[in-house]
């Protein structure tokens, strides 16, 4: 089940969103204040998000605005579009439109079918962010295997399980820890 936007909100509610910001939170807020910087940071990256009720989700944000999503209980990669949307209330937002997605978090006239999450809340919740399509999602239609529900599967483990060599660069998500 597609829960990109609700993951960020749920984890925020369960974590320290009301607490004084740490260094990672400050970095995310600075990035979110500048949509062009946010787009440059996220373009061409693989993001891994984990939520206990759902499990692990991997997103490849291609430079041409395409997004490819692998999520639990799916045999096929889901494809759609991504944009960075400025917002007066939230700073920059990462917005995804993936056919088959459910319940958009933000429903306004311009982005009615898009799921959007505030970058300053999303980035600290991303476990892993790597430059490039490290899992090869853009070239996949059928996934080599289904992701298990409710389990946290690191990118390096997923690479081993599909028989690919790691070769991961630095995890850009650590800047937001």
TrEMBL record:
- Superkingdom of this protein's organism: Bacteria
Record keywords: Signal
Q: Does the keyword Signal apply?
A: yes
Signal sequence span per UniProt? 1-18
UniProt protein name: Uncharacterized protein
Organism this protein belongs to? Paracoccus albicereus
User: Taxonomic lineage of this organism?
Assistant: Bacteria, Pseudomonadati, Pseudomonadota, Alphaproteobacteria, Rhodobacterales
